Amino acid sequence: MSIFVDENTKVVYQGLTGNQGRYYGMLNREYGTQVVAGTNPKKAGTNVEGIPIFASVAEAVQSTGANASCVFIPAPGVRNAVLEAAEGGVKLIVVITEGVPMHDEAYFFNKLAADYPDVQLLGPNCPGIISPGKANIGITATHITKPDGPVGIVSRSGTLTYQALYELTEKNIGCTTCVGIGGDPVPGTSFIDCLAAFEQDPDTKAVMMIGEIGGSAEEEAAEFIAAHLTKPVVAYVAGVTAPAGKKMGHAGAIVSGGKGTAKAKMEALASAGVQIGQSPSEAGDLIAEVVAKL
Amino acid sequence: MDLFEYQGKEFFASYNMPTSDGVAVTSVDAAVEAATQLGTPVMVKAQVHTGGRGKAGGVKFAADLDAVCTHATNILGLNIRGHIVEHLWIEKASDIAEEYYASFTLDRSAKKHLGMLSAEGGVEIEAVAERNPDAIAKIWVDPVTGLDAQQCRQWVLAAKLNPEVTDQTVDLLLKLYRAYTDGDADLVEINPLIVTPSGKVHVLDAKVTLDANADFRQNLAPYDVTQPRDAREAAAHAKGLQYVGLEGSVGLIANGAGLAMSTVDVVNQVGGQPANFLDIGGGADADVMTGAMEVINNDPNVKAIFINIFGGITRCDEVANGIIEAVKRVHITSPIVIRLDGTNSAIAWKLLDPYLGDRLILSSTMLEGARLAVDLAKGNSR
């Protein structure tokens, strides 16, 4: 099994008519994802390589039965796109776009939590989600993934997610689902959401978690792992040597006032029984040892 | 984007909050002229993006114009925690009866906005939090519903300020919240928020960080004044690259913040010293790659370059073309180690093949690439 997406997930792409949306929408379809619709109010009634374009997500849902959306809309339009998707009736919204203002993220996260509690938001500023062999929503490179479990992956960083997948595939270890939750200040899906879902998924036998400096998401995950996870977890945290007060690319990745250091995060995770790799490769070696013992 | 105090006050004033009259200057003559115009006494305040200005001698009271001249001369050029003072804010001096603290920022755990208010202002809020956490009244505001006057009043009462200024404080905090949300700020902080002997609530200092992602709907240009920064960072910034200058000899180029951070870690781990953090971002093409290599090449400390790319949204063949283009356009002085995996990596390797040699080396893993680059930076040949 997999979490959040599988071969039955039907996806509408908001921004399918744009460069990035079209490129990755087609790649996702080639992979086997059910790419059933695109939206663009100005191009409703047309199609992109056979995929029908609708004026709104609601119309796309009505005509195609789409139950997920993938957002490739430029940052200024993301707030409305997310609200439109939730109102339109999809249950999963994956926002790839980076550079969304913090106040927009805080607004639509809380709006969805209050009015659409059964909608799962992933991102913004994330690579998306892949259940290898079943569906890929977003920009994850598929040739580095291997299907049929037993490892679930959750990561705050895009390229480190690929690195993690690559480490596993090199060792001939499959993955149930790989979720990139993104590096922004208000991620729609948290480590905890993914850990809880992996715990429930019978095919996931171990979890690989990739964190980075800034905020306290890893510390919160550590508490959750200690209290609720029966499956082994291996973690890597990027930014051990990051200087304080400097934003390391991601809006969320900053050590400030002595808080959010990689060291504190690794200590919290280790005390929850998580095995810590000092590099992505070391984390890969650790997960291989865990899998060998399953 | 961090604002200087005077920019923060302009920002607050545009939301009708009470601030002092003042003038931003960059020379001693202009400081004296400003003080003449405002009328003494004035405060002479260093404008730098760091705290601890007072302790470093960057904030002085000037009773007359001679004192303005002396203080301005001393403060301009002063080094405050690594920041050289180029701007001064000359402000009409205020009489102070009480000092409070007020701020709004995002609470990332709660995913709500957090307001903090304290009757113990004028000192670092972290110190108050440690010594007497009960002295800080906190309010969590839902971004959807916002802050209403009733909630705000309860919050002010909880902070146990002077009851005579409750109404004024409620009014000011509602404006502060509006500045925070409508102005797309990541942080708005007033420390101290003062009460004058005549009972007026007044903004005496301003710390504001604006969200650069909101530049499509905010006019951020006036706040982007030239500021002393690392020359390498300035060059990278001009090319739109995410760059942080470090002290070592291994120049790094990676795609994605996480991988770039991890590359810094791994280079340290194998005994090297990174010269920088550099994220070329998603979808980086030949131009971006060339720009990144120019920035690294211009850093005299760099003895070897490690390019660590994993292609997701970035296509490895475009990166390869960028590297080839860069070595043709610019004389790269250091040997380059390249690790390229992911989308179109096989095409990329083929493209690079004719150029490989002692100066351009392809590595199969991140760890091996880091080791090789560190070795080359130490002057060992391959």
In the CATH hierarchy, what is the architecture of the largest domain in chain B at level 2? 3-Layer(aba) Sandwich
How many strands appear in the DSSP assignment of chain A?
A: 14
According to CATH, the homologous superfamily of the largest domain in chain B is Succinyl-CoA synthetase domains
Q: Structural class of the secondary structure composition of chain A?
A: alpha/beta
Give the second-level CATH assignment, the architecture of the largest domain in chain A.
3-Layer(aba) Sandwich
CATH superfamily of the largest domain in chain A: Succinyl-CoA synthetase domains
Strand content of chain B: 25-35%
Main sheet overview of chain A: 7 strands, mixed
Structural overview:
The complex is a heterodimer of chains A (294) and B (382). Chain A is an alpha/beta fold and 294 residues long. Chain A has nine helices and 14 strands. Chain A has two domains: 10-122, Rossmann fold (3-Layer(aba) Sandwich); 141-293, Rossmann fold (3-Layer(aba) Sandwich), CATH 3.40.50. In chain A, 36% of the residues lie in helices and 22% in strands. The two termini of chain A are 17 Å apart. Chain B is α+β, with helices and mostly antiparallel strands and 382 residues long. Chain B folds into three domains: 21-92, Dna Ligase, domain 1 (2-Layer Sandwich), CATH 3.30.1490.20; 98-223, ATP-grasp fold, B domain (D-amino Acid Aminotransferase, Chain A, domain 1, 2-Layer Sandwich), CATH 3.30.470.20; 231-377, 3-Layer(aba) Sandwich (Rossmann fold). In chain B, 35% of the residues lie in helices and 25% in strands. In chain B, the strands form five sheets. In chain B, strands 7, 8, 9, 10, 11 and 12 form a six-stranded antiparallel beta sheet that branches. In chain B, strands 1-6-2-3 form a four-stranded antiparallel beta sheet, with helices on one face. In chain B, a hairpin with a 2-residue loop joins β4 and β5. In chain B, α2 runs antiparallel to α3 (65-75) and α5 (149-158) packs across α6 (166-182). The model of chain B has no long low-confidence stretch (mean pLDDT 92). At the A-B interface, α4 and α5 of A face α8 of B.
